[in-house]
Amino acid sequence: MTTQRLHIASGWRGRGLVIVLVLVLVPFLRPIQLAAAPPVATVTLQAQIFLASNPNQPGAPPDLRLASLIAQLRKALPYSSFQPFLPAPSGRAEVGKVWRTELPGGEVQKGRVLELTPTAIDRAAIQIQARVVQAKIVQGKTVSETLVNTTVRLQSGGPPVVIGGPAHQNGVLVIVISASAP
Amino acid sequence: MKALLFGRSECSTVVQRLGAYVDGQLHDSRQKQLEAHVRDCPRCAAELQRLLALREQMRRNLAVSLPGEDAARFWDNVERKIHKAKSPPRWGADRLREMFWFYPKLWWASAAVLGTTVLLFTADMVLRPSMPPPTSLAPIDAQPRTVIESVEGGPNSSVVLFSTPDQQLKIIWVLERERS
């Protein structure tokens, strides 16, 4: 009887040791699992492109959704007309990855490109490298040339940054860049 | 192997408790374990005999030197202490030591847990993939705003920065140079 009791007690001690070992192991397993699959930060980018010009005759009335933005641009830039290119290109890019969209104009067909690269992200702020590059023909060869290279910090869903100036048709391009992070 | 590892520790514990045993202060289970050990251990048995002889000698001396009233008060105190000591041991260092004495496998279990912990900690430090550089930014102002951190033109262009009067829009204006 006593031997049987001792045997049962020994079995319970064995189970207790297994439980203790499992409790010790659990805290180590969690960080390894997290390290194996780090979350990927993704940014939603949008580039609203306008053709800014001073036409002799008034153009089409502006899109109501862009009226507020156009009013702001009119305050800052010496152009009376801001014709948007619709739909506005948009996309998503992970931090460190480049998102590209074609811009109108340039010497070479489809040779003008806007490149946006989210380089850092915080809860409310997104750091973006923006480049406008365009292809041109030099001595019969097509070469790529940077027009502007900038690093900006935008608030997620907040005010945009504007890049303007590349010539197109009878005016210039105005690119309004905004970003948001989930 | 077991005797080598635990024999000295067991004798040491028994010797520490011999005084309490001689005074009858051990509770029943401890008393039985100690008696079982002393039966098999000549060294502890000899120590017990030495203590019993000493106790007998002291009792004789006390009986001679203490007056009746003082002796009665002395033994009352002793009996009170014995009664107090016979209550079951509480959790603490003594109880822990007792557990390890009764269940020597606990030494192995503790060593295994400690070794596993050290091994896992080391493995975690060595095998953890290197973390990418932090991507968080410096603290920002409460007011949402756009910051142009750097800007440069190309080989055939220059840039001008300005903003709307209300500072809501930051504008980078590209000036393309005349082409020859």
How would you explain this protein's 3D organization?
The complex is a heterodimer of chains A (182) and B (180). Chain A is α+β, with helices and mostly antiparallel strands. Helices cover 25% and strands 46% of the residues of chain A. Chain A has helices at residues 2-36, 67-76, and strands spanning 42-53, 81-85, 90-94, 99-102, 112-121, 125-138, 141-155, 161-168, 171-180. In chain A, a hairpin with a 2-residue loop joins strand 6 (125-138) and strand 7 (141-155). The relative contact order of chain A is 0.18. The model of chain A is unreliable at 1-9 (pLDDT under 50). Chain B is mainly alpha-helical and 180 residues long. Chain B folds into two domains: 2-127, no CATH class; 148-180. Helices cover 61% and strands 12% of the residues of chain B. Chain B has six helices and three strands, in the order H-H-H-H-H-H-E-E-E. Chain B has a two-stranded antiparallel ribbon. The relative contact order of chain B is 0.07. Mean pLDDT of chain B is 77; it is low at 1-6 and 131-138. The interface between A and B is large, with 48 and 47 residues. Strand 8 of chain A pairs parallel with strand 3 (170-176) of chain B.
